[in-house]
């Protein structure tokens, strides 16, 4: 099948090939990042401490300091890995929702959220939090590791910060374009 025939078929179904491509790429990246998080959680306590100590030594060299507590490194790592998961999954969900006007949230007869962006943010929040909970649950079965609610809350900090930034950036973007968000009432 030629490219022109594909474009014709996509146009007939009102499918955006650009958003199909973006959705596929970002879902692959999202799943890859979940595997990275899972593999980091699969490290034993000794391996995990060694990795944290390596980063701490690197930071000590850069800052010409002598920090010996790696708890800050671990906290920032938790928040950062789930902040990145949030960005990837938000773009994947948003792109998926834009593939076709006929199947997007805007065409759904039941509107639980006020806008597409709110829907993407809420689904991204749930997706990231569920992954955080599974990550901590998985750590219960790794030698020397434990899963804690505190770590889920630390992950949630990264998730919420990113979602707030997404909301602010989206609002600023719309204002610079002279548009307002489409709200379903």
Q: How would you characterize this protein structure?
A:
This protein has one domain. 72% of the residues lie in helices and 0% in strands. The protein is elongated and about 55 Å long. The mean pLDDT is 87.
Task: Compose a concise summary of this entry.
This protein has 185 residues and is mostly helical. Helix content is 72%, strand content 0%. It has six helices and no strands.
Main traits of this protein?
mainly alpha; 185 residues
Structural class: mainly alpha
Number of strands: 0
The description of the largest β-sheet is:
none
Radius of gyration, Cα only, in angstroms? 20 Å
The shape, in one word, is: elongated
Give a topology summary:
Layout (H helix, E strand, L loop, with lengths): L2 H10 L4 H25 L3 H19 L7 H27 L18 H24 L9 H28 L9
Helix pairs in contact: 2-4, 2-5, 4-5, 4-6, 5-6
């Amino acid at each position: 099948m030629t490219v022109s025939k594909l474009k014709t078929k996509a146009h007939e179904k009102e499918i955006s090939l650009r958003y199909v491509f973006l959705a596929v790429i970002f879902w692959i990246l999202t799943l890859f990042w979940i595997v990275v998080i899972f593999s980091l959680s699969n490290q034993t306590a000794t391996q995990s401490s060694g990795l944290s100590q390596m980063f701490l030594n690197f930071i000590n060299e850069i800052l010409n300091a002598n920090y010996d507590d790696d708890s800050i490194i671990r906290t920032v790592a938790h928040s950062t890995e789930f902040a990145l998961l949030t960005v990837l999954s938000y773009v994947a969900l948003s792109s998926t929702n834009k593939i076709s006007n006929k199947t997007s949230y805007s065409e759904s007869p039941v509107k639980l959220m006020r806008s597409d962006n709110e829907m993407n943010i809420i689904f991204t929040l749930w997706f990231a939090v569920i992954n955080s909970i599974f990550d901590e649950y998985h750590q219960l079965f790794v030698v020397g590791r434990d899963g804690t609610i505190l770590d889920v809350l630390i992950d949630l900090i990264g998730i919420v910060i990113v979602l707030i930034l997404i909301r602010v950036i989206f609002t600023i973007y719309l204002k610079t374009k002279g548009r307002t968000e489409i709200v379903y009432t």
